[in-house]
Design brief:
heterodimer; A: 16 helices; about 65% helix; globular; B: alpha+beta; five-stranded mixed sheet; 11 helices; 10 strands; about 15% strand
C-alpha cells in the first residue's frame, strides 16, 4: 500500500486521495478569492470619489454581483470543503473520505461552473448585474440574456456542494476510528457535520429557485411575474430560506477552526466543549426560522415581523455562549501569539462586532433605517471577512506545517496579519458611518456628503489586497522550503493529526489509531 | 479633514470616555447626534422612536463589548507565557454556562419591549389625512395624490456633466429632482408604495420611511412631519443600471401652502391637456424635445444619441423609419426589451411629440419629420 502519488497532471485529474483533493480545493478557492478581490477593487476604485470615473453603472453592477457570487460560492465554501477534505479524515482517524471517487467529481465540476459564470462577463449584454441575491423580476424579465448561463452554473456548484456534504457526513458517521465517540470529536468535525446537514437541506432550495427563474424566462411560467399572477416576494422567501442557512454554512466551520487554535496557544483545554456542540446545533436550527429578517421592508404582516424579529434576536444567545467560551478558554491560560492565534483572536473580536451590528439589525423598526444601506454592508463584511476569511487563513497557517512539512516565516506571518487586520478595519468600519448617514448599497456614485469615509474605505481595501498577496508569497515560500516542522508542530497540541509525521504521509491511518 | 480627525478621535476613545464618568456618556451622545455619520433623528414621531432604539441598542452593544473585550484583553496582557503565566486546566462550569445563557436572554427581552411597541406604531397606517400613491419606475418616481386627481413625475435633475466630472458638483448632487413631493406638516400622510417594473424601495431617512415598491403589491407606510423643510432620500433596492440615480425629495410645507400647491398643479394639468390640441412649430418642438431628452432618455441612450444601456438613437432604424413605430415604442414600450418601458402615463403628449421630433432631427438623423401632440393623442386612443 505504500504507493506514492502518480506523476504529472493525471495525479490531480484522477486522484481520489483526500489530501490531493483538499489541496486542489484550497488552491482553487484562493484563485477565486483573488478574482473576487479584483472585482471588489474595481468597485472600491470607482467609489474612491464622487462622480463616474472608471466604470459605467451597468458594469459596476456586474462587479458587485460577481464579487458576491465568487466570494460566497467560489472562495469561502470551497476553502472550507478543502480544509474538511484535508483534516476530517486525519482528525477522526480514517484513511480517506468515505466516497473518494465522488470526492474527485465534486471538485472537478467546480472549475467548469465558475468558468461558465465568469464567461458571462464577455457575453453580449454583460454578466449577472442584479446583485448576488438576484431578486426577481430584475433577474428574470429584466435580466441580460446571459442569466441562463448563470442559472446553469448555480446548478452545477449546487450539485458539487451537495456531493461534498454527503461525503463529509458519510465519512464522519462511518469512518471514525474505534473509540472516537461523537462527543470526543474535535469541534471542527462537529461544526462541519452540522454544516453538511445544512447544505443538504438548503442547496436543493437554491436549485429550485433558479429553476423557477429558468421557467419564467424561457418556458412562459409566471412564478415571479406579477403581471402573470405570480409573486415577486415569493422569490425572496425561497431565496432567503436558502440564504440564511447559507450564511451559517460560511461561519460554522470557522467556529470549529478557532476552537482548535485557541486552546493550542492558550495551552489550556477548550472551555465548555459540550456547550459548544449544543450551541452550534442551536444556531443551525435557528437558521431555518429567521429568513424573513432579510425582508423586513417588503410588507410582511405585523405578526410576521414580530416573529422574525424575536427569532433573530434569539440567535444572540448561542452565539454569545461561543464567544464567552473562547474568552474563558484564554482566561488564565499561558498564551503565545503566533500568527494563527493572532488571526483567531482577531476573529473573536471582529466577529463579535459583526454580531453586535447583527443584533441592531434584528430590531425590526430600526432595520427600516438600516436595510439596504452601507450599514448592512459593514455588518456582513465584519462577520464574513474576519469570520470566514480570517479563520481560513488562520487554519492555513496552523496546519500548513503539517501539510508540507516546513514552518512558515513567523515574522512575515505577523506582518501579514497586521496588514490584513488594519486594512480590514480601515475598509469596513467607516461603512457603518456612511450607511447610518444615508448611503444606500450597490450604487456607483454618491453625494459629496459621503466622500471622506468612502475614500478611506478604498485605501483600506487596497491595503487588505496587498496583505493577501503577501499571504500567497508566504505560503509558496513555505511549500518550497523552510525550517523542518516536527510531527507536533506546536507545543503539545490536541488532535490525531499531530500524531502523524510532518508532512503528513500520502496515506494516513490505514490502520485505525488507538483513541484515549 | 479636521472634522474627520475629530470624528475618529471621538470614536476611538468612545469606550474609554464611557468608563470615565456618566457626564462624558452624555457628552459623547451629543457628539454622535450632531454629526453626519449617525442616523438622523428625523422629523416624525416614528423616526424619533427609531433613533432612540438605535442609540439604546448601540449603548447596550458598547456595554457588553467593554465587559467581553475587557476580559479578553486582560487575559492577553496578564496570562501570557512571556509573563511566566502557568496555564490552569479548568474547562467546564455549569454555573457559568447557565449564567451566560440566561443573562443575555433577559437583556434581549429588555430590548424587545420598546422595539415591539415602536413596530406596532410604525404599522398603524389607519386614519390618514392625505393618501399618496408612490410608484417606482426604472428610474424615477411617480406620485399620485388620491382623491385630488394630481399626478406628478419626479426625476433626477443633476446634469450629466456633473456626473461625468465635467462640471463642479452642486451641494445636492444626486439628491435633487425636478418635481419634489409636496406634503403638509402635522398631517398623517399615508404612502401607498408600488412599482411599475422591478422592485424599488422608497426611502426617506428623516421620516424613517422605507418601503419596498413591488410590482403587484401596495405597501403602506406613514409619516406625520413636525417641521417644515426639504427631506432627501434615495431608492434603496437595486433596480438596474440607474439605481443610484433616482433620488427622492420631500418638501414639507404648511397646510395653506399645500392647498395652493395642489390648485396650481391642477391648473397646470388643465393647461397641459389643452396644449395637446395645439400645433407647434419645428423650432418649438426641438427646443422642448431637447429638454425632455436630457431628462428622460439621456441616461440610457447617451448625450449624443450614441447609445449605452439602451440602443443608439443616431442612425436608428426606428427613429429614421416609420413614424408610427417610433411613437409606439415610446407610448407602449419595447416588446423585446423590458428596460425600454412605456411612457403612456408618465409623459405628456407635448413631451412625447417634441422628443420624437427632436430625435428624428438630431444626432445626424435628418428625417425633417414634425410630430404634433395631437398625433400622439390619437395614437394613444387607437393603440
Amino acid at each position: 500500500m505504500a504507493h506514492g502519488p502518480a506523476k504529472g497532471f493525471t495525479r490531480w485529474l484522477y486522484t481520489t486521495n483526500h489530501k490531493d483533493i483538499g489541496t486542489m480545493y484550497l488552491w482553487f478557492s484562493f484563485a477565486m478569492f483573488l478574482l473576487g478581490g479584483v472585482f471588489a477593487l474595481v468597485v472600491r476604485a470607482e467609489l474612491f470619489e464622487p462622480g463616474l470615473q472608471i466604470v459605467e453603472p451597468e458594469f459596476f453592477n456586474q462587479m458587485t454581483t460577481m464579487h458576491g457570487l465568487i466570494m460566497v460560492f467560489g472562495a469561502v465554501m470551497p476553502a472550507f470543503v478543502g480544509l474538511a477534505n484535508w483534516m476530517i479524515p486525519m482528525m477522526v482517524g480514517a484513511p480517506d473520505m468515505a466516497l473518494p471517487r465522488m470526492n474527485n467529481w465534486s471538485f472537478w465540476i467546480l472549475p467548469f461552473a465558475f468558468a461558465m459564470m465568469v464567461s458571462t462577463l464577455f457575453m453580449e449584454g454583460g454578466g449577472p448585474n442584479f446583485g448576488w441575491t438576484f431578486y426577481a423580476p430584475l433577474s428574470t424579465t429584466y435580466a441580460p440574456p446571459s442569466v441562463t448561463y448563470f442559472i446553469f452554473a448555480v446548478h452545477i456548484l449546487g450539485i458539487s456542494s451537495i456531493m461534498g456534504a454527503i461525503n463529509i457526513i458519510a465519512t464522519i458517521l462511518n469512518m471514525r476510528a474505534p473509540g472516537m465517540t461523537l462527543m470526543k470529536m474535535p469541534l471542527f468535525v462537529w461544526t462541519w457535520l452540522i454544516t453538511a446537514y445544512l447544505l443538504i437541506a438548503v442547496m436543493p432550495v437554491l436549485a429550485g429557485v433558479v429553476t423557477m427563474m429558468l421557467m419564467d424566462i424561457h418556458f412562459g411560467t409566471s412564478f415571479f411575474d406579477a403581471a402573470g399572477g405570480g409573486d415577486p416576494v415569493l422569490f425572496q422567501h425561497i431565496f432567503w430560506f436558502f440564504g440564511h442557512p447559507e450564511v451559517y454554512i460560511m461561519i460554522l466551520p470557522a467556529f470549529g477552526i478557532v476552537s482548535a487554535i485557541i486552546p493550542t496557544f492558550a495551552r489550556k483545554p477548550l472551555f465548555g466543549y459540550s456547550s459548544m456542540v449544543y450551541a452550534t446545533a442551536s444556531i443551525a436550527f435557528l437558521s431555518f426560522i429567521v429568513w424573513a429578517h432579510h425582508m423586513f421592508t417588503v410588507g410582511l404582516p405585523l405578526a410576521g415581523e414580530l416573529f422574525f424579529m424575536y427569532a433573530t434576536m434569539l440567535i444572540a444567545v448561542p452565539t454569545g455562549v461561543k464567544v464567552f467560551n473562547w474568552v474563558t478558554t484564554m482566561f488564565r491560560g499561558s498564551m503565545t501569539f503566533e500568527t494563527p492565534m493572532l488571526y483567531s483572536i482577531a476573529f473573536v473580536i471582529l466577529f463579535t462586532i459583526g454580531g453586535f451590528s447583527g443584533l441592531m439589525l434584528a430590531i425590526a423598526p430600526a432595520d427600516f433605517q438600516y436595510h439596504d444601506t452601507y450599514f448592512v454592508v459593514a455588518h456582513f463584511h465584519y462577520v464574513l471577512v474576519p469570520g470566514a476569511i480570517f479563520s481560513i487563513v488562520a487554519a492555513v497557517y496552523y496546519w500548513l506545517p503539517k501539510w508540507c512539512g516546513n514552518m512558515y516565516n513567523e515574522t512575515m506571518g505577523k506582518v501579514q496579519f497586521w496588514m490584513a487586520f488594519i486594512g480590514l478595519n480601515v475598509t469596513f468600519f467607516p461603512m457603518h458611518f456612511v450607511g447610518l448617514a444615508g448611503m444606500q448599497r450597490r450604487v456607483p456614485d454618491y453625494n459629496q456628503f459621503f466622500a471622506d469615509f468612502n475614500m478611506i474605505s478604498t485605501v483600506g481595501a487596497f491595503l487588505f489586497a496587498a496583505a493577501q498577496l503577501m499571504f500567497l508569497y508566504n505560503v509558496i515560500a513555505t511549500i518550497r522550503g523552510g525550517k523542518k516542522a516536527t510531527a507536533e508542530v506546536w507545543e503539545n497540541p490536541e488532535g490525531l493529526e499531530w500524531t502523524v509525521a510532518s508532512p503528513a504521509p500520502y496515506h494516513t491511518f490505514t490502520t485505525p489509531p488507538p483513541i484515549k | 479633514m479636521l472634522i474627520l480627525i475629530n470624528r475618529l478621535i471621538v470614536w476611538l476613545f468612545a469606550p474609554v470616555l464611557l468608563l470615565i464618568s456618566n457626564t462624558s456618556v452624555h457628552a459623547l451622545e451629543e457628539a454622535v447626534e450632531r454629526s453626519s455619520w449617525n442616523m438622523p433623528v428625523g422629523v416624525t414621531p416614528i423616526s424619533q422612536d427609531v433613533y432612540g432604539l438605535h442609540m439604546a441598542m448601540f449603548w447596550w452593544c458598547v456595554g457588553i463589548g467593554v465587559v467581553v473585550f475587557g476580559v479578553l484583553f486582560y487575559s492577553m496582557i496578564v496570562h501570557r507565557k512571556s509573563n511566566g503565566a502557568k496555564a490552569s486546566n479548568f474547562h467546564d462550569s455549569l454555573g457559568l454556562e447557565i449564567t451566560w445563557t440566561v443573562l443575555p436572554f433577559v437583556i434581549l427581552i429588555i430590548m424587545a419591549v420598546p422595539a415591539t411597541s415602536s413596530l406596532v406604531k410604525l404599522y398603524d397606517t389607519s386614519e390618514s389625512d392625505v393618501d399618496i400613491v408612490v410608484t417606482g419606475y426604472q428610474w424615477y418616481w411617480g406620485y399620485e395624490y388620491l382623491d385630488e386627481d394630481v399626478k406628478i413625475i419626479s426625476r433626477l435633475n443633476t446634469p450629466q456633466e456633473q456626473i461625468r466630472n465635467e462640471a463642479p458638483k452642486g451641494a445636492n448632487y444626486l439628491m435633487e429632482v425636478d418635481e419634489p413631493l409636496v406634503i403638509p406638516i402635522n398631517k398623517k400622510v399615508r404612502f401607498l408604495v408600488t412599482s411599475n417594473d422591478v422592485i424599488h424601495a422608497w426611502w426617506v431617512p428623516a421620516l424613517a420611511v422605507k418601503r419596498d415598491a413591488i410590482p403587484g403589491y401596495i405597501n403602506e407606510s406613514w409619516a406625520k412631519i413636525d417641521t417644515p423643510g426639504i427631506y432627501r432620500g434615495v431608492c434603496a433596492e437595486l433596480c438596474g443600471a440607474q439605481h443610484g440615480f433616482m433620488p427622492i425629495v420631500v418638501k414639507a410645507v404648511e397646510q395653506e401652502e399645500y392647498v395652493a400647491y395642489l390648485a396650481e398643479r391642477k391648473e397646470l394639468a388643465a393647461i397641459t391637456k389643452e396644449l395637446a390640441n395645439k400645433t407647434f412649430s419645428l423650432d418649438e418642438l426641438m427646443l422642448q424635445g431637447e429638454q425632455v431628452y436630457g431628462q428622460a432618455c439621456v441616461a440610457c441612450h447617451g448625450a449624443n444619441g450614441e447609445g449605452g444601456v439602451g440602443a443608439a438613437i443616431a442612425g436608428s432604424s426606428i427613429v429614421n423609419g416609420d413614424i408610427a413605430a417610433h411613437i409606439d415604442i415610446i407610448v407602449n414600450g419595447s416588446k423585446n426589451n423590458a428596460l425600454m418601458g412605456a411612457y403612456r402615463d408618465t409623459m405628456s403628449e407635448v413631451d412625447i411629440a417634441s422628443v420624437i421630433t427632436f430625435q428624428r432631427n438630431s444626432f445626424g438623423n435628418t428625417t425633417g419629420d414634425v410630430v404634433q401632440p395631437i398625433d400622439i393623442l390619437k395614437y394613444k386612443q387607437d393603440n
